[in-house]
Amino acid sequence: MPDRPDDGTAHHDTYGHLISLLDSSRVDYRLIDHEPEGSTEAVCALRGHPASEAAKCIVLRVKVDRRTTRHVLAVVPGDRRVDLDAVRALFDARYVGFSDADTAERLARAVPGTVLPFSFDDDLEVVADPDVVAQPKLYFNAARLDRSLLISGADYERLAKPRIERVAGPAAQEPGPPRV
Hints:
- By secondary structure, the chain is an alpha+beta fold.
- It has a single domain, classed as YbaK protein.
- It is 26% helix and 27% strand.
- The strands form 3 sheets. It has a 5-stranded mixed β-sheet with strand order 5-2-3-6-9. Strands 1-8-7 form a 3-stranded antiparallel β-sheet. Strands 4-10 form a two-stranded antiparallel ribbon.
- Strand 2 (55-63) and strand 3 form a beta hairpin.
- It starts with 13 loop residues before the first helix and ends in a 9-residue tail after the last strand.
- This is YbaK/aminoacyl-tRNA synthetase-associated domain-containing protein.
């Protein structure tokens, strides 16, 4: 496996592709430098905003039938989880699960923890929860562990052109005291 730089970009130029897209589209955005971090909760703390304003991006393997497998980039608010049953129903699929790391990196063109809510690969369909595009401020790692991006949910929707469907499950539960 090749060595990866500390910023998490590896051999992908997804960061450059994203910045070119934003600049050519004349979208207002802000870059935020921070300590390298790929966990949604931890990077939200570094950036100083609630997790509900973050885009959590998960690459899924969707088996429609025995011969047909699709890959979907599910984008949900950072304080929520992907509802696999909703994705399965959406695609009338037999099975939906998390993609393996190599496939996710190849399709997302980013290492784990840096996946964008955009797809630059025709084999990766983006499905975003309506609560993501409704955000006035939407934060996500910019295909790097050490840099994030802030954009409006409306601008994200206009540029990424995701399929908008309810794919977020309930907010993640905080572990409580053990039951006796």
